[in-house]
Amino acid sequence: MMNNMLVGLKQSKKAVEAGEVGQAYVAHDAESNVVTPFLALCKKKGIPVERCYDMKELAKVCKVEVPTAVAVNLREITQSSAEISPA
């Protein structure tokens, strides 16, 4: 996994909705009622999802202490797409 990550369902969902995510990771032991809406959103937005690890292992890989159901890699933003047009 890359360094440019967000961890947790709420932050990950916001990033997917904003089109900022290149890859999503969902722990295989996460409760389905928690992750099913997130998986549907990723599918709708065309974000690849990898079902991996358990929640503790996913947290360890992401270097956080609390077990997590979801993590995402953010897409690389190019200079031109990051520029704000002058007012």
What does this structure look like?
With 87 residues, the protein is α+β, with helices and mostly antiparallel strands. The protein has one domain (5-75): 60s Ribosomal Protein L30, Chain: A. It is 39% helix and 22% strand. It contains four helices and four strands. Strands 1-4-2-3 form a four-stranded mixed β-sheet. Helix 1 (9-17) runs parallel beside helix 2. The chain is globular, with a radius of gyration of 14 Å.
Topology:
Blueprint: E1 5-7, H1 9-17, E2 21-27, H2 32-45, E3 49-52, H3 55-61, E4 70-74, H4 79-82
Helix pairs in contact: 1-2
Q: Proportion of β residues? A: 15-25%
Annotated CATH architecture: 2-Layer Sandwich
* Sequence stretches where pLDDT stays below 50 over 5 or more residues: 79-87
Tell me the count of domains.
1
**Helical element count?**
4
CATH level 1 class label: Alpha Beta
Radius of gyration: 14 Å
Please count the beta strands (DSSP E, at least 2 residues each): 4
Identify the strand order in the major beta sheet.
1-4-2-3
Q: How would the global form be characterised?
A: globular
- Average pLDDT figure: 88
